[in-house]
Structure formats: structure tokens, C-alpha cells
Amino acid sequence: MKIGRRWLLAMCPVALVAGFASLPLNAQTVAPSSPPAAIAIAAPAQSAPQQAYTLPPEKLAKAIALSRIRITLGIAGAVWGIVFLWLLLAARAWVAIERWTQRISGRRWVQGLEFFAAFFLVTALAGLPLDATAHHFERAYGISVQAWGSWLGDQAKALGLTLLVGAPILLLFHWIVRRWPRRYWLAAWVVTLPILAFSIFLEPLFEPIFFHFEPLQKNHAALVSELEKVAARTGTNIPPSRMVLMKASVKTNGLNAYVSGLGATKRIVVWDTTAGRIPDDEVLFIFGHESGHYVLHHIAKGFVGSAVGLLFVYWACAAFAAWLVKRFGARWIDPKPEDLIHAEPALASRTGFVVLLFAISIAGFLTEPVVNAVSRHFEHQADVYGQEAIHGIVADPEKTAVAAFNDLGAAWLEDPHPNPFLVFWLYDHPSIQQRAGFAAHYDPWAIGGHGEFFKR
Ligand SMILES: [Zn+2]
Q1: pTM for the structure as a whole
Q2: CA-CA distances (angstroms) from residue 3 to 50, 55, 412?
């Protein structure tokens, strides 16, 4: 994951409605999991011989310190998001907001839009101090070079998009809850699927809101012709017109390349912090990795997995929310007493719907290790694929892959010895050490064999 994607995820209403939505999006990036979601605390440095990923001493100390900060902020942010919703429910703030919307307009749908816009605004403001703290440290450690004004501008843009896209979607989901009070979770699930698919398809259209793009061909013609060799070997149908350079350097020193979009919007994006700054061979490896996600149908598999998981999550959240409403509804929602005999009428109120969102945010936190385990599996497969894809094109695929991981790790200040439990819970990619360690010893051609995905 990298910065632009984080914003897109933050604004993606489906990601909020469905804690699972990050899977198909995350599965595409090659970069180490970036702040604040998935970085590790330092385990005591072990004197293991032959580490494939190493940092010079001064960078190592920085990486360990920054990892601790990222993990603390990441966990604090997740917990705070849940606690904040609960606090506002307990303080009956949503009841007050609902009454306020009723005073402004008599139309139900206008009230709904106001209420959900207020919901996004209030939660965004609540998250701002932690996000700003994270940005402060990313700047202090030289990862981010984005000035505060520009950063605030991006936050405002992300919020604007959320209001524009998210509020109508929550209005739709709330209508579903009122329309089918007993089986709304099933109807909501059916509606989530096309929204999820569209969010992947439309992602490239949102990216230029945060970054400038230009054809990769413009300043990196040699790299493009090398990339075409890999594209030919992998059979991915990505012509040079679909290879673009993202001007990331105005905001970050981090490295990345990724594939985004589906079908007509599919394209490879290489950051300008990557093309020309690390050897072209390493960019080819990253491109091979990205191609792997497509060739091995990780997007489609992630989508199906998310769909199956979401059905269960929605069902469980409906049951949990019904329990919450029966237990706390009299205090949180202010319903008529007879509405609490069954949970459905109370849940159908707008404040009741926030109880449902509260349940979903808890589910999102608890299911993160499952989603991440699947993601790490896909990422490992893509690493294998990427190394095989550049076989015969670069001189030494093993060395190239190991060097690429070292450059990625150094650019993002990735901890070489992350705590295994934190990797299990929070990492959507294997640790850089695991990835580099595998790459260093993966050479099926040495014994006359062939790759897992390529027969030559
Ligand atoms: Zn990947």
C-alpha cells in the first residue's frame, strides 16, 4: 500500500461499509505495507547469519524507531475509530444530529444526506489528529516531503470525495434496512458486490485528483521497451499507452509501482521516485510482480473471497447490532419503548443505522488477520511470478529481486526484524525480510527445472 491508495481507501465508502474492501485493492501493490495500517514493531535484532534484507546502522535505528511509531499510531487509529463511534452513541450525539437534520429539511432523503454527510465529517475530523501525527513523523523521518498545506488540501479532497460518493451510498444502504427490516443484510450484500467491482474499475479515474500523471514513454523510453519484453513474456496485454508515470516525488521519497483498474481502465503506474532512481531491472521485477496479480486472477479471487466473507460479516453484524440495540438502544437511540421489543424498528432509524456501522467497524478490525493472511498468500505468489517473469530478460533474477526488496525496504524504512505476531495480524504483504529471503534462494533453473508459472 502507498499513500495515494490509502487516501482512496479512506474515501472508498465500501471500505467503510465493508471492512473487506481493501483486499482486492491492496493485493495489487508491490510496496511494503505502508503507514499506518501495517508496519511492525521491532523484535530484538537476532544475529541470524546472511540476512537478505539489511540496512546500514543509522538507517536501521531509524527504521526500528519509525516502525514502533507507525504500529502504535496504526493500532491507536483503529481502536480510536471504534471507541469514537461508541462515545458519540453513548453521548447521544447522533440523536442530536438527527434532530438537527429534521429542522433543516422536511424531505426524508435530504435529511438522510445531511445526516450521513455529518457522519463522514465528524469521523474525518476525529481521525485528523492521529493522521496529522503520522504525517509529522513521516516527514521527520524523511519518507514524506509533502508540506502541511498540500497535505491538508489532500485531506479536504478526500473528504469531499467521501461526501460526494459515500453519503448517497449510505443513504441507499439505510433505505435497504428500512425496506427489508428482517433480511436487510442479504439485500445490502447483493448491492455491495457491484459497488465493490465498480470501485476497483473506477479507481484510476480518482487517482489524478491526488497526483499528476504522464506517459511513461515521455521520459523513460528505454524502460518502456524493457517493460514490453516482460509484458510479452507474461502475456499481459498492457501496451505502452497504458504505462504511466506518477509524479509522486512532490509528496514522498517512497518507491512503488502498481497495476490499477480493470478491463478498459487497466494500467501500470510507475512512481517517478522509482523509474530512473532504481535500476530498470528492478522496475521490471516489480512490473512482473504486478503482472502476476493479473495473470493469477488475484483481483477476481479477492473479489469472490470478499463476497463470501462479507455475506457472513453482514449476517453477523446484523445479529450483533440487533443485540446492541436491545441492550443499549434505550440510551443510544431514543426510540419508542415498543420499538425495542424487536430490534428492527429501532435499527431502521438513522441513529440505529450508526449502531450497525459501529458493529461493522468492529468486524473490520477483528477480520483483519484473515484478510491479511489471504493477501500475504497472493503477494508471495506474485513475488514468485515476478521473479520467473524476468528470467531470461535480466541477467540475474535472484540478485535483481533481492536488490529491489532492499531498495523498497530502505526507501520506506522497513524494519528488518518485525515481530511475527504483528506480521500475522497487520501485514498485508510478507515482511521485506521474508520476501528478500525467499528471492535469494529461488532459482529452479539452476537445477535444470522451470518455474511454477512459466515452462521455460
Ligand atoms: Zn503485490
Answers
A1: 0.85
A2: 32, 23, 11
